[in-house]
Write a sequence for this structure.
């Protein structure tokens, strides 16, 4: 099905939009937070199942994760294990992103 748009000029365009968070950018950042023991704050993270599962894995590996509005505060002071929970890995293919930081 084709969409048709009719544009009538002569009026200036103005306004503000808030770009939504991008899952494909957020998931690698969550995994990369395992590489430092410092606090990591990520903003504009989408609240979707994929990010929730990645956070579950992050916590299972020993990290802490707190959400505050659109911000996510991560800390991986110590890694408690190197095994990704199988049930979580089956839910999301992006769990492979933890392989690099765990090595």
């Amino acid at each position: 099905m084709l969409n048709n748009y009719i544009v009538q000029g002569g009026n200036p365009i103005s306004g503000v939009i808030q770009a939504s968070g991008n899952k494909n950018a957020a998931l690698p950042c969550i995994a990369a937070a395992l590489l430092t023991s410092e606090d990591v704050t990520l903003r504009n993270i989408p609240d979707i199942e994929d990010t929730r599962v990645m956070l579950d894995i992050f916590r299972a590996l020993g990290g802490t994760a707190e959400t505050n509005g659109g911000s996510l505060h991560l800390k991986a002071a110590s890694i408690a294990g190197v095994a990704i929970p199988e049930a979580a890995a089956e839910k999301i293919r992006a769990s492979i992103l933890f392989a690099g930081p765990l090595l």
Residues 49-60 form the longest helix (12 residues). The chain has four helices and three strands. The chain has a mean pLDDT of 91.
